[in-house]
Structure prediction request, 599 residues.
Amino acid sequence: MEGLINFGILFLTMAGIYGILSLGLNVQWGFTGMLNVGIAAFFAVGAYSSAIVTSVGDLPHWGGIGAPMIIGFAAAMIVSGIMAFFVGLITLNLRSDYLAIASIGIAEIIRLVLKNEEWMTGGVNGFTGISGKFNNIFDGGHALLYMIMVMVVLGIAYFLCERAYKSPWGRVQRAIRENEIAARAMGKNSLSFRLQSFVLGSAIMGLGGAVYTHFTGFISPEAFDPLLATFLIWVMLIAGGSGNNKGAILGAFIIWGVWSGTEFITSSILPADMATQGAYLRVLFIGILLQAILLTRPQGLLPENAPQPDKD
Amino acid sequence: MEILQLVLYGTILGSILALGAVGVSLTFGILRFANFSHGDLMTIGAYVVFVVFTVMKLPLWLAIIVSLAVTAALTAIIDKLIYRNFRNSDPVILLISSFGMALILRSLIQLIWGPSTQVYEKGIQLAIKFGGGLRIKPDQIIILVGTVLLIIALHLFLRKTKMGKAMRAVADNAELARLTGINTEKVILCTWLMGGALAAAAGIFLGLDTRVFPEMGWNILLPVFAAAILGGIGNPYGAIAGGLVIGISQELSTQFIDPSYKPAVAFAIMVVILIVRPTGIFAGRSS
Prediction:
């Protein structure tokens, strides 16, 4: 029973973190139609920024400032947002493929920096000394408290995204997505609006990274592998429903359930020495799942439901 | 002299990138999307040669031909099964689908061949020394000669055959091409076959030059895209030049920065091009 509760808490915490990331992607792709294929970069930058600001002790890398966790969250959002600003400035007035390619590039370079710059990030050995009031999940009731905090952060992020979506600002984003030339003809500066949406989405992803950091208490470049940190989030958003904030969160919970569930299945069916093959099978399954969703239900489980002008 | 040696190595790497970038550019020109599974198609090509040449011990030239054919056929099958259904969708859906396809291909590679690194031939190849102390390995000569042959073949195909002309017509203006009676489905099939074969060639040459492992193609995707953008995406001739520029810059950069940052050099060049001249140094597409 206790094991089941612990599993439930762990599951909801991770699904909640992915929910935050999926909301961030929804702002970029769902609202405005921008293809960010480098989620891992913003996720990682958020995670490391928060780790650097909040970590304690004499560390062999950056950090040791010992600021409270809330400052870490703010730092994560600011640094990810600034990075997004520069990436966006270069690519957002070009066609969407360029943003996709540039974002993959940013993710790759961030990964190289995390791996190679030991003096800054701890390199492949990872970043230690991360504090936070709730970092130790094996110590008392902290896991439950942390889960509640993740849900609160997710709730706030959802509330803000929903407000943004329904606001005139969100309407302009949808107009740009549907017909950029028409939006510009209406006097909207599409580059500026896109940039705002890209920065906001990336800041939310950075926040997701910070929440993740204080949950695991340890981060290394491996955690920000493009598969888990980019691809899974795309599948979540598309499965849940691009453009729908509820869908983004629902998709995160379902796909995280599928991803954890397949781990359970492969580990119980396959013998122990085939564990790595099991992992590949799971990736294969998620890849096929994405194709199936794109082919059969591209609008996702909860299709976008934009407010109609007469109902406002 | 060290500089000249690096330029030579850069030309070899550049040839590999050029072959990859030509494939990316061809598919972009016809189907209007950046194919994120191109890197993993390269990996497939490299592993087919590993099976035919290293495991079955057949001659290398035969292994290369088999690999080009198998990868091209696989690419056409993927199009029939998946991409064809998105012909009338927004091209970005194709991009997302190809991103998923990249992971499907890579997990299949890992399931079949495992995660470990392979080499085509064990043992060290002796480098041949020639004029001015320059060194080159026999495998690297194969890469250079193979690339030149493939590019000449591509050029003749695009310029002299009816299908090549049709492909250029569709790349220039798909609607107009259809109106003049060009069978666009046939052109698309042909594009995929060529893109797949070129990806295989790039993967094989990368495997010859370095090693064969499941992430090899994905890892080189960024410089390949950078080369395609530098040459003007959609323009296969520009992609060749782009590949050489990126390859040589990456090798020369090792004089100044940590070699592990080589992909960052490709990225930096790409960013500069996107700011200064988004259509590439040779006219390509930006919108």
The radius of gyration of chain A is 19 Å. Chain A touches chain B at residues 33, 35, 37, 90-91, 94-98, 100-102, 104-106, 108-109, 112, 115-116, 227, 231, 234-235, 238, 276-277, 280-281, 283-284, 286-288, 290-291, 294-295, 298 (CB under 8 Å). Chain A has a mean pLDDT of 89.
